[in-house]
Amino acid sequence: MNERQPSQTALGAAGYRAAHQVLEGGKVFSDPLARTILGDGADAIIAGLSAGPAQQRTRFFIATRSRFAEDCLGAAVSRGVRQAVVLGAGFDTFALRNPYSELGLRVFEVDHAATQAWKRRRLSEVGLAIPASLTFAAVDFESDDLGRGLRDAEFNPDHPAFFIWLGVVPYLERAAIAATLRYIASIPGSEVVFDYSEPLENYPPERRDEVAALAARTAEVGEPWLSHFDPAEIDRELRGFGFADIEDLRVSEMALHYLGIPAGGPSGPGPHVIRAGTQ
Ligand SMILES: C[S@@+](CC[C@H](N)C(=O)[O-])C[C@H]1O[C@@H](n2cnc3c(N)ncnc32)[C@H](O)[C@@H]1O
Prior knowledge:
Rossmann fold, alpha/beta, seven-stranded mixed beta sheet, globular, binds S-adenosylmethionine
């Protein structure tokens, strides 16, 4: 992506979460700040993400991946974890809602400097205060040392941490993904939730046009998809980095889990959400 301009896909993901609040009442993922953080343009953004079954599927996927990540984070906090890191945070609002701040959960938001500066300006414009439990770290996964960026922000790599890394892996080169996962696995008692997509050739021919159109749209805004994984391949890589406890969920499994019904869309290859822990 172009590091001099804020991420357009971050605005898109935030728009889908806001649309989910308005159109589905936040049924899967309740985020009372999702609309607020969009500012004055909220209604237009939501209206643009409301048409047709493909947008409904994307709304559903984006809502469930956040719900799953925050459910897993809640479980980690119950086990005593007190550091959460939101990697490529974009306009994610968890750090602003942090329901565990009284328990001492510190949240670190990592993102490109341009996107982070944009978010901070937006928070001030819409009157959302930055909580004392939140610290920002500007890091480029492709060229910076994540560990150093987090240490500079007073993250403690000797204490367990929970990482949320949503909607970012497809936009990175393989080397940056491997370096980030290796770093997470080096932290004792760490856990991560992230999503990835399968390569286009895994899809049946009749579904490739829809996926290719989505990829073309992100490329048009300067954020092309750079990395895809086969499920067996990502499992092998994660184990190689030291993750032992791995759960890989397809969108259809998320639908069953959170709605008790099929997603209403195809159940074959597609986006996946992974939870991976080192213990
Ligand atoms: C699709 S957005 C997802 C944002 C957020 N996680 C969400 O789910 O709403 C992708 C995010 O990854 C960040 N990102 C992409 N490439 C990056 C890089 N090389 N270094 C740091 N952040 C990056 C963008 O700035 C943006 O915030």
